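Friendly challenge for the regulars: who can give me the structure tokens for this chain first? No prize, just bragging rights.
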Amino acid sequence: MGRTPHAIDTHTRKYVPDDAGQLEVPSELLEFAESGAPRTGFEEALLRSSHLDPTDPELAADGQERRQELSPYRVAWLLDELTGSATYKSVDEAGRSLRENGFVILEPGSPNEPPLVGMELIETCAEEAVAQCERLLTQVGQRTGISVYKQRFYYREICHRVDGGLRYDMRCDLEGASECWAKLREQSARLALPIIERSKLLDMQVAPDEQHCAPLRSALPTRTVLPHFDMQGCVTSFPSACDQHFHPDGPTAGLINCFVPLVDMDHTNGSTELKPGTHMYSLDAERVERQPGVHSNMRAGSMLLFDFRTHHRGRAHRKNDAPRPVAYCVFGAPGVSDRHNFSAAYESVWDCSEAQSETDLADAHGPANPLPQL
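First reply, four minutes later:
Bragging rights claimed.
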């Protein structure tokens, strides 16, 4: 018989034992263990650490399975005292989690250490994100007459993909963008690219063209083959924003999203919840459904890397004091770009006089897809 699952402890990265010391897992996972279906590293470790895998080859003499901790998805970003670069251990652990779990959270080595991205830059980007979002929302409202808080809309600069969602996806790499976004992009690349390469999730057989490589060469000048920078934006959720449904950012392999929260992110203002391992079976709805999620509560200036195919969702914003901006950069394998979230068919909010409706978008490039929600 299966038991009701407890929550995953985000500090220890393991399921919390019950009073008898036994780890509890969903009955669906028990049935999955007996089916002989292929497993992800996360599922394998969960079953084995829960004493419930009937095929575990590592049985002790007394018949008790050995416990095995899940691959850590929170990694302390430690620096070498001599070189000032990240230690091999940090990069290796982060790359393994990105490959096996489909995501990794990078944090300072201790609560007293400064954030991974400079706090002055984080604060500047946070102020610019909210101001830019408000400017664009004002423009949308004035040009179209729609309620920007209640109705969905799709523009080149900003999208509101769910009626009443209060969560806005805004581009930060278009002409006229503040220089703070370019600085954030460079710092993000410096941290993210070694991990992406170590994960081996991207096929880097062919070098990207020079136009894509140029913005990243200053970050990692010794590399000869690099994933290219694809796009940059910021997702801002406003107070009273509701929970999203679980979704991938797209169906395409070869794309990695890099989140940098611009404010502290927890259960009160809507942290991101992710389902480990789902990048390996993103289109298998039943398997995705039974996979438990984990929360990514993070300090401002920390980093979350995840495969585009990993199922995740933004949680509700329950605080009433301020918006919650999360900046992101997308890095792609050579020849792979995000064609899912911002369509080339979207008009500029500064050029059009009417809101782009679902019908307009369908005429331009097929039905508007409600899936791409960061």
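Residues 1-34, 38-69, 204-225, 361-374 have pLDDT under 50 and may be disordered. The radius of gyration is 21 Å. Your move, everyone else.
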